[in-house]
Design a protein that fits this description.
It is built from six helices and two strands. With about 140 residues, it is mainly α. Among the domains are: about 25 residues; about 60 residues, Photosystem II 12 kDa extrinsic protein (DNA polymerase, domain 1). It has a two-stranded parallel sheet. The longest helix has 26 residues. The protein is elongated.
Amino acid sequence: MDLYTRRQLTLVLVVVVVAGAGLGVDRWRRSHPELAERLEALDRTPVPAPSARPAPDTRAARPRTQSERGHDIPPLDLNLASQDDLARLPGIGRGLAARIVDSRARRGTFESVDDLRRVRGIGEMTLTRLRPLLAIGPAP
């Protein structure tokens, strides 16, 4: 005498597999917040019609280094930058920019660019890419 039918056992197995996959996705998202945010941003970014799509500009695809920028464009002051200013930096979207501004409001100004590590989603690679583009201005 069977307690459960084959159909019921299959349904339980499917529920367990789906729940396990959900937990796996959640764990991956927590360990890769930058990539997860970038993937979510792809879903929110409107795609222009094929006829209106401009030709790709490969020069704008990579951030300029300090030597390429020259001395006429100063680095962005991390303690004075708005959320919109921060969101324009390479690798920083609106969500990460909001977390930077929120961290600055809650924990005080940044003493150095390296203090960005306290913001969830800023890893060593992101910090290395941003270091030449950011500065800490003199204290008021």
